[in-house]
Amino acid sequence: MKANLLSIKGTWREVADAARTTIGLEAGTGEPSSSWKRRMILAEHSPIRKLHINWKWTDLKYWVSVHLVRHKYGIEHFVQSQRPDRPNSTDNRDDAPQSTLINHEGIANLQAIINISRKRLCNQAMPETREAWQAFLETFKEFEPELYGACVPDCIYRGWCYEYKSCGYHLTENYKERLVEYRAGINQPNIPWGWWACFFCGFPNPTRHEVCERCGTARTE
Known about the structure:
This protein has 221 residues and is of the alpha+beta class. Helices cover 34% and strands 16% of the residues. The protein has eight helices and six strands, in the order E-H-H-E-H-E-E-H-H-H-H-H-E-E. The chain has helices spanning 12-22, 34-43, 62-68, 110-120, 127-140, 145-150, 154-158, 173-183; strands spanning 2-9, 52-61, 75-79, 101-109, 196-197, 204-205. The strands form two sheets. It has a four-stranded antiparallel sheet with strand order 1-2-4-3. Strand 5 (196-197) and strand 6 form a beta hairpin. The longest helix has 14 residues, at 127-140. It is flat and about 75 Å long. The model has no long low-confidence stretch (mean pLDDT 91).
């Protein structure tokens, strides 16, 4: 299986101008800063839906493709047919195994990519499906690092695991580190010298306190 980036449709200038329209301002100039892009993505305001990523998986297992086509909001799928009268198809469609390798193209806006990442990066997703989605994310990491950083499993996104059958990742030290990284710099209060910020809710606490005054989370630093 391989994922290839086909194109990025739309520009961040267009996103910024749409945002300016919503607050009664005229179009601006120049490329928005990385910080602005990250805040807009994490806020998930509607202008981010003006940007679309177009990509293609080759040699993707048919059953993995079936998992992915279940996502339908803000995304379109173009999946290789298994009809016997199409090129490179089997003679008998009934004999085609679920492991048949196919091509699967997708185009999705940024909101959809964030939403799908929450489910397909979860450890409860099938490993092959998680691998395919991660391979797609890697295709645009160099060009859209702010979006890449916002694509996280649901436990990071929501600050806890709400799966029926938890893998337990949300109880690990690595989870705590990733959660801090994901939330870094977003609406966090100024921390007085010598105080510590709760990794869970960001509340500033005096050094003498070992648990957060707001949420009761134990100090981790």
